[in-house]
């Protein structure tokens, strides 16, 4: 698995990251990031209600 991080990236609690992901910005809590562009695939129920 390869994950590339650029800059001071912050991961929220319960964040999941897929393989071969390039992350350019912070990821909020409870997210799942996939694809080369780190698209957010899903949020947890708590995140959806905000």
- Report how far the terminal alpha carbons are from each other: 32 Å
Shape: globular
- What strand line-up does the widest sheet have? 2-4-5
Number of strands: 5
Main features:
two-stranded parallel ribbon; mainly beta; 50 residues; 1 helix; single chain; 34% strand
Description of the structure:
The chain has 50 residues and is mainly beta. It is built from one helix and five strands; from the N terminus they run βββββα. It has one helix spanning 45-48, and strands at 3-5, 16-17, 21-23, 31-34, 39-43. A hairpin with a 4-residue loop joins strand 4 (31-34) and strand 5 (39-43). The chain is globular and about 25 Å long. The model has no long low-confidence stretch (mean pLDDT 76).
What's the quick description here?
The protein has 50 residues and is mainly β. The protein has 1 helix and 5 strands; from the N terminus they run E-E-E-E-E-H.
List the helices and strands and how they pair.
Elements: E1 3-5, E2 16-17, E3 21-23, E4 31-34, E5 39-43, H1 45-48
